[in-house]
Automatic annotation (TrEMBL):
One of its GO terms (molecular function) is hydrolase activity. InterPro entries: AB_hydrolase_fold, CMBL, Dienelactn_hydro. Residues 30-245 form the Dienelactone hydrolase domain. The gene is Cmbl_1. Belongs to the dienelactone hydrolase family. Pfam families: DLH. This is Carboxymethylenebutenolidase homolog. One of its GO terms (cellular component) is cytosol. PANTHER family: CARBOXYMETHYLENEBUTENOLIDASE HOMOLOG. It is found in: Cytoplasm, Cytosol. It comes from Tyrannus savana (Fork-tailed flycatcher).
Length: 245
């Protein structure tokens, strides 16, 4: 069965039963999920989803977590109406599907969201985080978008941007030690290139024993051995944003 060949293991994670505290909005040609803190702030974070799209409850959970930490959080549909991947899809077709959803071609959408955050939400300091596909998108944005202050790339698929390391903004990279999609050799190579070329602050951190998706696709209550690393990854993400926004 072709379905047994899985180029991305994101689906092994847990799909949270979570409704979300924010609301869906239309921003020009893009749908987005927005959550705002109870007190006003000029700090915002764009949350870039994984292959399962902007409506995945796990990603909205992350956006809401950012809001409880004082940030306006917005998760736009970076696939712009194209269908997100489903675990029931034939993984044999995954690479063809991925060709039509390039993490390095979201600049137009991000510019629209930046304008919305500035004009409608009063945001002045804006960062970005992303998971898996979205983590690769974060690396792309950190290489070229002058309007973002900082980024957190959470198990971003390195091979899409493995020759690009001259980052514009402070960037935090989160990886799992046991990630089948991102071998540790790729992480080591990324670190070497960042050391050679990067002029801004960066950090690459590998979390022991963790598989792809652990920060947002594992539930602490049913993965007790992973709980400290899940919590650590989320805390590190918030601390990085607090430092640079």
């Amino acid at each position: 069965m072709a379905n047994e060949s899985r180029p991305c293991p994101c689906d092994i994670g847990d799909r949270f039963d979570y409704g979300g505290r924010g609301q869906e909005v239309q921003v020009e040609h893009i749908k987005a999920y927005v959550c705002k803190p109870s007190t006003s702030t000029d700090k915002a974070v764009i949350v870039i989803h994984d292959i399962f799209g902007w409506q995945l409850p796990n990603t909205r959970y992350m956006a809401d977590m950012l809001t409880t930490n004082g940030y306006i959080a917005i998760c736009p549909d970076c696939f712009v109406g194209q269908e997100a991947w489903k675990p029931s899809n034939d993984w044999g077709t995954f690479n063809e599907w991925l060709k039509t959803r390039n993490a390095g071609k979201i600049d137009k959408e991000v510019d629209v969201i930046l304008k919305y955050l500035r004009d409608q939400c009063g945001a002045k300091k804006i960062g970005v985080i992303g998971f898996c596909w979205g983590g690769a998108a974060v690396q792309h944005l950190m290489l070229k978008n002058p309007h973002l202050k900082t980024g957190v790339s959470v198990y971003g698929v390195i091979r899409h941007f493995d020759d690009k390391s001259n980052l514009l903004h402070p960037t935090f990279f989160i990886f799992g030690e046991k990630d089948d999609v991102i071998p540790l050799e790729q992480v080591t190579l990324l670190e070497q290139k960042l050391k050679q070329n990067c002029k801004v602050d960066y950090e690459v951190k590998i979390y022991p024993g963790q598989t792809h998706g652990f920060v947002h696709r594992k539930r602490e209550d049913i993965n007790p051995q992973d709980k400290p690393y899940i919590e650590e990854g989320r805390k590190d993400m918030i601390n990085w944003l607090n430092k640079y926004l």
